Protein backbone atom coordinates (compact mmCIF):
# COMPACT_ATOMS: atom_id res chain seq x y z
CA UNK A 1 0.00 0.00 0.00
CA UNK A 2 1.01 3.64 0.29
CA UNK A 3 1.77 3.47 3.97
CA UNK A 4 4.99 1.48 3.86
CA UNK A 5 7.85 3.00 5.85
CA UNK A 6 11.31 1.92 4.78
CA UNK A 7 14.68 2.69 6.33
CA UNK A 8 17.48 2.97 3.74
CA UNK A 9 21.16 2.48 4.64
CA UNK A 10 24.10 3.37 2.39
CA UNK A 11 27.79 2.70 3.17
CA UNK A 12 29.25 1.64 -0.20
CA UNK A 13 31.83 4.38 -0.55
CA UNK A 14 32.85 7.36 1.56
CA UNK A 15 29.48 8.58 2.84
CA UNK A 16 27.53 7.00 5.68
CA UNK A 17 23.87 7.71 4.97
CA UNK A 18 20.43 6.74 6.23
CA UNK A 19 16.91 7.90 5.47
CA UNK A 20 13.29 6.99 6.09
CA UNK A 21 10.95 7.16 3.11
CA UNK A 22 7.23 6.47 2.84
CA UNK A 23 5.95 4.55 -0.17
CA UNK A 24 3.98 7.60 -1.35
CA UNK A 25 7.36 9.28 -1.91
CA UNK A 26 7.43 11.35 1.25
CA UNK A 27 10.94 11.73 2.66
CA UNK A 28 10.62 11.65 6.45
CA UNK A 29 14.29 12.08 7.19
CA UNK A 30 17.67 12.04 5.53
CA UNK A 31 21.15 12.07 7.07
CA UNK A 32 24.51 11.95 5.31
CA UNK A 33 27.81 11.84 7.15
CA UNK A 34 30.72 12.51 4.82
CA UNK A 35 34.30 11.30 5.17
CA UNK A 36 35.59 13.99 2.79
CA UNK A 37 37.64 15.57 5.57
CA UNK A 38 39.32 12.30 6.41
CA UNK A 39 39.99 11.52 2.75
CA UNK A 40 41.54 14.92 2.16
CA UNK A 41 44.02 14.26 4.96
CA UNK A 42 45.06 10.88 3.55
CA UNK A 43 44.67 11.64 -0.15
CA UNK A 44 42.23 8.89 -1.08
CA UNK A 45 40.01 6.07 0.06
CA UNK A 46 41.88 3.49 2.11
CA UNK A 47 39.35 0.66 2.61
CA UNK A 48 40.30 -0.16 6.20
CA UNK A 49 40.14 3.48 7.23
CA UNK A 50 36.84 4.00 5.42
CA UNK A 51 35.39 0.93 7.15
CA UNK A 52 36.37 2.30 10.56
CA UNK A 53 34.90 5.69 9.72
CA UNK A 54 31.57 4.08 8.74
CA UNK A 55 31.55 1.90 11.84
CA UNK A 56 32.17 4.93 14.05
CA UNK A 57 29.13 6.89 12.86
CA UNK A 58 26.65 4.30 11.57
CA UNK A 59 24.67 4.06 14.83
CA UNK A 60 24.22 7.80 15.20
CA UNK A 61 23.36 8.23 11.50
CA UNK A 62 20.62 5.57 11.66
CA UNK A 63 19.35 6.70 15.07
CA UNK A 64 19.34 10.26 13.79
CA UNK A 65 17.24 9.29 10.78
CA UNK A 66 14.73 7.45 12.98
CA UNK A 67 14.55 10.28 15.53
CA UNK A 68 14.08 12.95 12.87
CA UNK A 69 11.22 10.89 11.42
CA UNK A 70 9.77 10.46 14.92
CA UNK A 71 9.90 6.70 14.58
CA UNK A 72 11.38 3.64 16.22
CA UNK A 73 12.30 0.36 14.55
CA UNK A 74 8.85 -0.96 15.52
CA UNK A 75 7.16 1.46 13.10
CA UNK A 76 9.14 0.36 10.04
CA UNK A 77 7.84 -1.94 7.29
CA UNK A 78 11.27 -3.03 6.03
CA UNK A 79 14.97 -2.20 5.95
CA UNK A 80 16.79 -1.57 2.65
CA UNK A 81 20.56 -1.61 2.42
CA UNK A 82 23.13 -1.19 -0.35
CA UNK A 83 24.81 -4.54 -1.01
CA UNK A 84 27.01 -3.46 -3.95
CA UNK A 85 28.89 -2.39 -5.92
CA UNK A 86 31.39 -0.84 -3.54
CA UNK A 87 34.15 -1.58 -1.08
CA UNK A 88 33.18 -4.86 0.60
CA UNK A 89 34.58 -3.82 3.98
CA UNK A 90 32.40 -0.71 3.85
CA UNK A 91 29.31 -2.44 2.52
CA UNK A 92 29.49 -4.92 5.40
CA UNK A 93 29.16 -2.15 7.98
CA UNK A 94 25.77 -1.22 6.52
CA UNK A 95 24.63 -4.80 5.91
CA UNK A 96 25.53 -5.87 9.44
CA UNK A 97 23.51 -2.95 10.89
CA UNK A 98 20.57 -3.61 8.58
CA UNK A 99 20.46 -7.27 9.64
CA UNK A 100 20.72 -6.31 13.30
CA UNK A 101 17.75 -3.92 13.05
CA UNK A 102 15.74 -6.27 10.85
CA UNK A 103 16.42 -9.10 13.33
CA UNK A 104 15.49 -7.06 16.39
CA UNK A 105 12.20 -5.84 14.96
CA UNK A 106 11.53 -8.84 12.69
CA UNK A 107 11.45 -6.81 9.49
CA UNK A 108 11.98 -7.95 5.91
CA UNK A 109 15.25 -6.84 4.38
CA UNK A 110 15.90 -5.64 0.84
CA UNK A 111 19.38 -5.72 -0.72
CA UNK A 112 19.84 -2.79 -3.07
CA UNK A 113 22.20 -2.23 -6.02
CA UNK A 114 23.84 1.19 -5.62
CA UNK A 115 23.59 2.17 -9.30
CA UNK A 116 19.98 1.03 -9.61
CA UNK A 117 19.24 3.26 -6.63
CA UNK A 118 20.88 6.26 -8.32
CA UNK A 119 18.56 5.69 -11.31
CA UNK A 120 15.32 4.82 -9.53
CA UNK A 121 15.34 7.74 -7.10
CA UNK A 122 14.31 9.80 -10.12
CA UNK A 123 10.92 8.03 -9.95
CA UNK A 124 10.44 9.37 -6.44
CA UNK A 125 10.76 12.97 -7.62
CA UNK A 126 9.08 12.62 -11.03
CA UNK A 127 5.82 10.70 -10.77
CA UNK A 128 5.39 10.69 -14.56
CA UNK A 129 8.58 8.70 -14.98
CA UNK A 130 7.39 5.30 -16.16
CA UNK A 131 9.37 2.44 -17.69
CA UNK A 132 10.93 2.29 -20.21
CA UNK A 133 13.34 5.19 -19.66
CA UNK A 134 17.02 5.92 -20.16
CA UNK A 135 19.59 6.78 -17.51
CA UNK A 136 23.05 8.30 -17.50
CA UNK A 137 24.68 7.47 -14.17
CA UNK A 138 27.80 9.49 -13.45
CA UNK A 139 29.80 9.22 -10.26
CA UNK A 140 33.31 8.72 -8.95
CA UNK A 141 33.48 5.06 -9.87
CA UNK A 142 30.85 4.57 -12.55
CA UNK A 143 29.90 6.00 -15.91
CA UNK A 144 26.89 4.14 -17.26
CA UNK A 145 24.30 4.61 -19.94
CA UNK A 146 21.39 2.25 -19.45
CA UNK A 147 18.00 1.55 -20.87
CA UNK A 148 15.64 0.69 -18.03
CA UNK A 149 12.97 -1.53 -19.56
CA UNK A 150 11.29 -2.47 -16.32
CA UNK A 151 12.09 -2.83 -12.62
CA UNK A 152 15.15 -5.06 -12.46
CA UNK A 153 15.42 -5.26 -16.24
CA UNK A 154 18.21 -3.05 -17.56
CA UNK A 155 20.18 -2.98 -20.78
CA UNK A 156 23.63 -1.43 -20.62
CA UNK A 157 24.21 0.82 -23.62
CA UNK A 158 27.62 2.07 -22.54
CA UNK A 159 30.15 2.14 -19.73
CA UNK A 160 33.64 3.48 -19.17
CA UNK A 161 36.60 1.56 -20.53
CA UNK A 162 38.85 3.12 -17.87
CA UNK A 163 37.93 5.95 -15.46
CA UNK A 164 34.61 7.57 -14.61
CA UNK A 165 34.04 11.29 -15.07
CA UNK A 166 33.93 11.93 -11.30
CA UNK A 167 37.41 10.45 -10.96
CA UNK A 168 38.63 12.90 -13.63
CA UNK A 169 37.04 15.82 -11.74
CA UNK A 170 38.63 14.68 -8.47
CA UNK A 171 42.14 14.28 -9.95
CA UNK A 172 41.93 17.57 -11.82
CA UNK A 173 40.95 19.32 -8.59
CA UNK A 174 43.82 17.73 -6.72
CA UNK A 175 46.39 18.66 -9.39
CA UNK A 176 45.08 22.24 -9.50
CA UNK A 177 45.64 22.59 -5.76
CA UNK A 178 41.96 23.00 -4.93
CA UNK A 179 40.55 22.56 -1.44
CA UNK A 180 40.01 18.81 -1.14
CA UNK A 181 38.01 18.99 2.08
CA UNK A 182 35.03 19.24 -0.20
CA UNK A 183 35.06 16.67 -3.00
CA UNK A 184 36.82 17.68 -6.20
CA UNK A 185 33.76 18.02 -8.38
CA UNK A 186 32.14 21.04 -6.70
CA UNK A 187 35.55 22.76 -6.42
CA UNK A 188 36.15 22.44 -10.18
CA UNK A 189 32.61 23.56 -10.98
CA UNK A 190 33.12 26.71 -8.92
CA UNK A 191 36.57 27.56 -10.30
CA UNK A 192 35.48 26.87 -13.89
CA UNK A 193 33.04 29.80 -13.67
CA UNK A 194 36.06 32.17 -13.61
CA UNK A 195 37.82 30.51 -16.52
CA UNK A 196 37.72 30.55 -20.30
CA UNK A 197 36.54 27.12 -21.45
CA UNK A 198 38.09 27.59 -24.88
CA UNK A 199 41.56 28.55 -23.69
CA UNK A 200 43.01 25.04 -23.55
CA UNK A 201 42.37 22.76 -26.46
CA UNK A 202 41.67 19.33 -24.98
CA UNK A 203 40.53 16.70 -27.43
CA UNK A 204 37.24 14.91 -26.88
CA UNK A 205 37.74 11.24 -25.94
CA UNK A 206 36.83 8.36 -28.28
CA UNK A 207 35.66 10.56 -31.15
CA UNK A 208 36.43 7.78 -33.62
CA UNK A 209 34.54 5.11 -31.64
CA UNK A 210 30.95 5.26 -32.82
CA UNK A 211 29.57 3.60 -29.68
CA UNK A 212 28.21 4.69 -26.30
CA UNK A 213 31.24 3.89 -24.18
CA UNK A 214 33.28 6.40 -22.24
CA UNK A 215 36.92 7.03 -21.50
CA UNK A 216 38.38 9.60 -19.12
CA UNK A 217 41.94 8.33 -18.58
CA UNK A 218 43.24 10.13 -21.68
CA UNK A 219 41.63 13.42 -20.70
CA UNK A 220 43.21 13.10 -17.25
CA UNK A 221 46.60 12.78 -18.93
CA UNK A 222 45.91 15.81 -21.13
CA UNK A 223 45.00 17.82 -18.03
CA UNK A 224 48.14 16.73 -16.21
CA UNK A 225 50.30 17.79 -19.15
CA UNK A 226 48.55 21.16 -19.44
CA UNK A 227 49.08 21.77 -15.73
CA UNK A 228 52.77 20.92 -16.04
CA UNK A 229 53.21 23.16 -19.08
CA UNK A 230 51.73 26.12 -17.17
CA UNK A 231 54.07 25.44 -14.23
CA UNK A 232 51.20 25.11 -11.81
CA UNK A 233 52.28 23.78 -8.44
CA UNK A 234 49.55 21.80 -6.65
CA UNK A 235 51.42 22.28 -3.38
CA UNK A 236 50.58 25.97 -3.58
CA UNK A 237 46.88 26.06 -2.64
CA UNK A 238 44.79 28.14 -4.99
CA UNK A 239 44.05 30.69 -2.26
CA UNK A 240 47.76 31.51 -2.18
CA UNK A 241 48.23 31.65 -5.95
CA UNK A 242 49.00 34.88 -7.83
CA UNK A 243 46.13 36.27 -9.89
CA UNK A 244 47.83 35.17 -13.09
CA UNK A 245 48.37 31.66 -11.71
CA UNK A 246 44.78 31.58 -10.52
CA UNK A 247 43.53 32.55 -13.97
CA UNK A 248 45.47 29.78 -15.68
CA UNK A 249 44.13 27.25 -13.17
CA UNK A 250 40.58 28.49 -13.82
CA UNK A 251 41.13 28.22 -17.57
CA UNK A 252 42.23 24.61 -17.23
CA UNK A 253 39.26 23.83 -14.95
CA UNK A 254 36.81 25.36 -17.41
CA UNK A 255 38.38 23.72 -20.46
CA UNK A 256 38.51 20.35 -18.71
CA UNK A 257 34.86 20.61 -17.68
CA UNK A 258 33.75 21.61 -21.18
CA UNK A 259 35.55 18.65 -22.78
CA UNK A 260 34.49 16.15 -20.12
CA UNK A 261 30.86 17.15 -20.58
CA UNK A 262 31.05 17.28 -24.39
CA UNK A 263 31.97 13.60 -24.19
CA UNK A 264 28.82 12.96 -22.13
CA UNK A 265 26.74 14.98 -24.61
CA UNK A 266 27.97 13.00 -27.64
CA UNK A 267 27.36 9.66 -25.95
CA UNK A 268 23.88 10.64 -24.76
CA UNK A 269 22.91 11.82 -28.20
CA UNK A 270 23.92 8.51 -29.76
CA UNK A 271 22.39 6.45 -26.94
CA UNK A 272 19.04 8.19 -27.40
CA UNK A 273 19.12 7.39 -31.12
CA UNK A 274 19.88 3.73 -30.32
CA UNK A 275 17.27 3.47 -27.59
CA UNK A 276 14.50 5.01 -29.65
CA UNK A 277 15.11 2.30 -32.25
CA UNK A 278 14.59 -0.34 -29.56
CA UNK A 279 11.54 1.39 -28.11
CA UNK A 280 10.06 4.54 -29.63
CA UNK A 281 7.87 5.15 -26.56
CA UNK A 282 10.81 6.34 -24.40
CA UNK A 283 10.17 9.84 -23.09
CA UNK A 284 12.73 10.46 -20.36
CA UNK A 285 16.45 10.44 -19.76
CA UNK A 286 17.48 10.39 -16.10
CA UNK A 287 20.83 11.88 -15.11
CA UNK A 288 21.94 10.92 -11.63
CA UNK A 289 25.01 10.12 -9.51
CA UNK A 290 27.29 12.63 -7.81
CA UNK A 291 28.42 14.42 -10.99
CA UNK A 292 24.76 15.06 -11.91
CA UNK A 293 24.62 17.60 -9.09
CA UNK A 294 26.79 19.85 -11.31
CA UNK A 295 24.77 22.74 -12.75
CA UNK A 296 26.84 22.98 -15.95
CA UNK A 297 26.34 19.25 -16.58
CA UNK A 298 22.59 19.59 -16.03
CA UNK A 299 22.21 22.57 -18.35
CA UNK A 300 24.23 21.04 -21.19
CA UNK A 301 22.51 17.65 -21.00
CA UNK A 302 19.09 19.28 -20.79
CA UNK A 303 19.77 20.85 -24.19
CA UNK A 304 20.85 17.56 -25.76
CA UNK A 305 17.90 15.65 -24.37
CA UNK A 306 15.41 18.31 -25.49
CA UNK A 307 16.91 18.46 -28.98
CA UNK A 308 16.21 14.73 -29.26
CA UNK A 309 12.59 15.22 -28.19
CA UNK A 310 12.98 13.69 -24.72
CA UNK A 311 12.71 15.18 -21.24
CA UNK A 312 15.55 15.31 -18.73
CA UNK A 313 14.92 14.18 -15.17
CA UNK A 314 17.66 15.15 -12.77
CA UNK A 315 17.10 14.65 -9.03
CA UNK A 316 17.98 17.56 -6.73
CA UNK A 317 21.72 17.60 -5.89
CA UNK A 318 21.22 16.04 -2.44
CA UNK A 319 19.61 13.00 -4.12
CA UNK A 320 22.27 12.81 -6.89
CA UNK A 321 25.20 12.35 -4.53
CA UNK A 322 25.20 9.22 -2.36
CA UNK A 323 22.27 9.20 0.06
CA UNK A 324 19.96 6.92 2.01
CA UNK A 325 16.78 8.11 0.30
CA UNK A 326 17.64 6.42 -2.99
CA UNK A 327 18.27 3.15 -1.14
CA UNK A 328 15.01 3.35 0.82
CA UNK A 329 13.07 4.23 -2.34
CA UNK A 330 14.59 1.38 -4.36
CA UNK A 331 13.75 -0.89 -1.45
CA UNK A 332 10.14 0.27 -1.68
CA UNK A 333 10.03 -0.42 -5.42
CA UNK A 334 11.27 -3.98 -4.91
CA UNK A 335 9.23 -4.62 -1.78
CA UNK A 336 6.02 -3.71 -3.62
CA UNK A 337 6.59 -6.49 -6.14
CA UNK A 338 7.54 -9.04 -3.51
CA UNK A 339 11.32 -8.92 -3.85
CA UNK A 340 12.73 -9.04 -0.32
CA UNK A 341 14.33 -11.42 2.15
CA UNK A 342 12.54 -12.63 5.28
CA UNK A 343 13.62 -11.19 8.63
CA UNK A 344 16.90 -12.64 9.90
CA UNK A 345 16.72 -14.61 13.17
CA UNK A 346 16.31 -12.23 16.12
CA UNK A 347 19.36 -13.59 17.95
CA UNK A 348 21.74 -13.87 15.02
CA UNK A 349 25.35 -13.88 16.23
CA UNK A 350 27.46 -10.90 15.11
CA UNK A 351 29.81 -12.97 12.95
CA UNK A 352 27.07 -14.64 10.90
CA UNK A 353 27.24 -11.87 8.27
O1 LIG B 1 27.55 9.14 -6.52
P1 LIG B 1 28.63 9.71 -5.69
O2 LIG B 1 28.24 10.61 -4.52
O3 LIG B 1 29.55 8.58 -5.10
C1 LIG B 1 29.91 7.46 -5.87
O4 LIG B 1 29.08 6.53 -5.98
O5 LIG B 1 31.04 7.52 -6.45
O6 LIG B 1 29.62 10.50 -6.66
C2 LIG B 1 30.80 11.11 -6.18
C3 LIG B 1 31.48 11.82 -7.32
C4 LIG B 1 32.84 12.40 -6.95
O7 LIG B 1 33.77 12.08 -7.95
C5 LIG B 1 32.57 13.89 -6.89
O8 LIG B 1 33.69 14.69 -7.21
C6 LIG B 1 31.49 14.04 -7.95
O9 LIG B 1 30.66 12.93 -7.76
N1 LIG B 1 30.75 15.29 -7.79
C7 LIG B 1 30.77 16.29 -8.70
C8 LIG B 1 29.99 17.34 -8.17
N2 LIG B 1 29.52 16.93 -6.95
C9 LIG B 1 29.99 15.67 -6.74
N3 LIG B 1 31.38 16.37 -9.89
C10 LIG B 1 31.21 17.51 -10.59
N4 LIG B 1 30.50 18.57 -10.14
C11 LIG B 1 29.88 18.53 -8.95
N5 LIG B 1 29.18 19.59 -8.50
ZN1 LIG C 1 27.06 6.78 -5.93
From TrEMBL:
It comes from the Eukaryota. Binds 1 divalent metal cation per subunit. One of its GO terms (cellular component) is mitochondrion. It comes from Nepenthes gracilis (Slender pitcher plant). Required for the formation of a threonylcarbamoyl group on adenosine at position 37 (t(6)A37) in mitochondrial tRNAs that read codons beginning with adenine. Probably involved in the transfer of the threonylcarbamoyl moiety of threonylcarbamoyl-AMP (TC-AMP) to the N6 group of A37. Involved in mitochondrial genome maintenance. Homodimer. The keyword Transit peptide applies. GO terms for biological process: tRNA threonylcarbamoyladenosine modification. Its cofactor is a divalent metal cation. Keywords: Acyltransferase, Metal-binding, Mitochondrion, Transferase, Transit peptide, tRNA processing. The keyword tRNA processing applies. GO terms for molecular function: metal ion binding; tRNA N(6)-L-threonylcarbamoyladenine synthase activity. It catalyses: L-threonylcarbamoyladenylate + adenosine(37) in tRNA = N(6)-L-threonylcarbamoyladenosine(37) in tRNA + AMP + H(+). It is found in: Mitochondrion. Residues 26-329 form the Gcp-like domain. This is Glycoprotease 1. Belongs to the KAE1 / TsaD family.
Amino acid sequence: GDGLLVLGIETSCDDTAAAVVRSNGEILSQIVCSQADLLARYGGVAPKMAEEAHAKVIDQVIQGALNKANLTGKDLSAVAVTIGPGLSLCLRVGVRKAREIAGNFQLPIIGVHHMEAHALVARLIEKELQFPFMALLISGGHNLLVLALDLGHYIQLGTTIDDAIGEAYDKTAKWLGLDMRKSGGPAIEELAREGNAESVNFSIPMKQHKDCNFSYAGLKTQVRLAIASKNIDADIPIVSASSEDRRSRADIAASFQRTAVLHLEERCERAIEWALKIDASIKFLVVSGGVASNQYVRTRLDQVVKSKGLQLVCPPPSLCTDNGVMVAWTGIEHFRVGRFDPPPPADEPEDAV
